[in-house]
Design goal:
Elements: H1 14-26, H2 29-36, H3 40-54, E1 59-62, E2 65-68, H4 70-94, H5 96-99, E3 101-108, H6 110-115, H7 117-127, E4 130-137, E5 151-153, H8 179-185, H9 206-210
Parallel strand pairs: 3-4, 3-5
Antiparallel strand pairs: 1-2
């Protein structure tokens, strides 16, 4: 039996939903405004209007950054699905799903290439089978401006202002010490305790040490 949709109960403004989604993904109104080609006040008003219509608070300010509330996190999962669906509709309607083709080089760290890329590339193959993918698993920071790669997935925000960046998620990292080092130097309690310590890492770890 076909279940009828209660269309009168479906009432939302896609622009408001999109403003919330991109702000959540980018982490700030300013970054979201750049991604959408809109103004920061416009996005702020759209998110505020969505909060008012839903009767919940979606973001909290933490210093200069925005943090999703519990209600925002719950809504984000549903809105991401809507965003994916909207992208597929746009591709299908414009006939681009089959016409997008060419060689694309994606570089990511060893860990990301092993654990996260396979599923993402499988979905990309379904959407755009005409793309020839090259994956470079490397922890080196490849220069996108010299076309050493088309897309780079890295654990840091790029410093080049002419690159287009999008925050995909968050990861955790930790510092580890041998039992002998702890016995000799004690267990660190604050950053200053390891200011003069020697670090061992893979590749050029200066950026990580500075952080």
């Amino acid at each position: 039996m076909h279940k009828c949709m209660d269309w009168q109960a479906v009432a939302f403004d896609w622009n408001q939903v999109r403003a919330f989604l991109v702000t959540a993904e980018e982490g700030s109104f300013s970054a979201a405004a750049r991604a959408l080609g809109a103004t920061q006040p416009t996005l702020g008003r759209q998110v505020a209007a969505l909060e008012e219509s839903l009767g919940v608070t979606l973001f909290e300010r933490v210093g200069r950054n925005l943090s999703l509330t519990e209600a925002g996190l719950e809504l984000l999962d549903h809105v991401r699905a809507m965003g994916d669906a909207a992208s597929r509709v746009s591709l299908t309607a414009s006939g681009q799903a089959q016409s997008v083709e060419g060689h694309v080089c994606v570089t990511a760290t060893d860990v990301l290439s092993m654990y996260l890329l396979p599923d993402a590339l499988r979905r990309l193959r379904e959407v755009a089978p005409g793309i020839e993918l090259e994956v470079v698993a490397s922890n080196d920071v490849r220069d996108l401006r010299r076309r050493e790669a088309d897309i780079a997935i890295r654990h840091g925000r790029p410093e080049q202002p002419d690159l287009i960046a999008k925050k995909l998620g968050e990861t955790e990292a930790g510092l580890y010490a041998s039992a002998g080092w702890i016995e000799e130097h004690g267990r660190p309690e604050k950053p200053d305790d390891v200011r003069n310590a020697e670090f061992i890492g893979f590749d050029r770890a200066g950026r990580l040490i500075a952080y």
